[in-house]
Amino acid sequence: MNTYFDNNATTPLHPLARQAWLRATDQHWHNPSSLYRHAGHTAQQLENARERLGNLLGAEPNRIVFTSGATESNNMLFAAYHGRKTAISAIEHPSVRAPAHHHTHVTEIPVDAHGICQLQIPHDAAIVSIQAANNESGVLQPWREAAAHCRKLGIPFHTDAAQWIGKLESTHLGQCDYITGSAHKFGGPKGCGFLVLRHEDEHIRFHHGGPQENGRRAGTENYPAIEAMVTALENAHPQSPEPRDTFIHTITSAFPHIRIISAGAPRLWNTVLMVMPAHDNLKWLIRLSRRGFSISTGSACSSGREGSSIVVTALGASPTELKRVVRISSGWHTTAADWQALTTAFQEVSHELDTGGPGA
Length: 360
Ligand code: PMP
What we know:
Layout: E1 3-4, H1 15-27, H2 37-57, E2 64-67, H3 70-80, E3 85-89, H4 94-103, E4 105-109, E5 127-129, H5 143-153, E6 157-160, E7 178-182, E8 193-196, H6 223-234, H7 242-254, E9 259-260, E10 271-275, H8 281-290, E11 293-294, H9 310-314, H10 319-322, E12 325-329, H11 336-355
Parallel strand pairs: 1-11, 3-4, 3-5, 5-6, 6-7
Antiparallel strand pairs: 2-8, 7-8, 9-10, 10-12
Bound molecules: 4'-deoxy-4'-aminopyridoxal-5'-phosphate.
């Protein structure tokens, strides 16, 4: 048995995305840039996928550049602002933080006690980047307000929406100047994503080489992955937070000293970030894993490094609290029974750890 509760790290391929990938690979494997009829069909299918994605994001299709995922999209964007002043939230994913610091002069925008980014936008920033939803805590960030505020100031606004897209309604994201997305966060394949740009960025050459993606990103397009990504998104729908909230209710009754991070803030329906009352998070993770439950100690990109939760650090947690952080994130396949079984497993593991049971 494997009950998977790490969907913010990655998701299994949606069955319809898998079908779409196989169909595209079998029938439309030709190079979209070639000139014969079959290649023309692939190119048409590719443009059709771009249009469908544009509809889902509320963005004109010609603003979309297909990439290998959110990390590449974020790196491309900050490389284009090389040497400039930028402002990013204090809780951005490492794939925003690292290229922003590498290429630009960064001001960090702080979060409040709930982990919500404050709208203190430096007026001299050449670009502002605030994620749509946080990958660790699931906290929804005020990207709409930030986009409107930046528009008034005449500053381009980027949102890394890798955790929002596929979980919540996305048709308003097109209001942002730049949007980052990643297929494997919503049932699409890994190694596929996109960056939405402004119309005026039409001539930016992010990767040099062939004329693909209107000259903006050279390299033969991965049409089967793109088709699978768009199909996954067409089949991804917001879900009720109720099973997650029932879990929180039960676990906080079972462990009165547990701390749910950002419990008072609007959050993604699938995510719980919590500080366990005792025992290091790796002990919880290993014992839950032995029982068939996959959870996380924070974001996959920073787990494995001790005390690495960016969010819990930004909220001013102590080093010992940082070692007790666990993240649980459900998906379209998770049932209420899975959540219930997870609660029971937490109670069993707690007993094992407290009493020095097997391997404690
Ligand atoms: N941004 C956010 C908010 C993420 O959660 C992730 C994945 N952990 C990424 C970017 C990186 O995505 P990818 O794996 O597609 O590079």
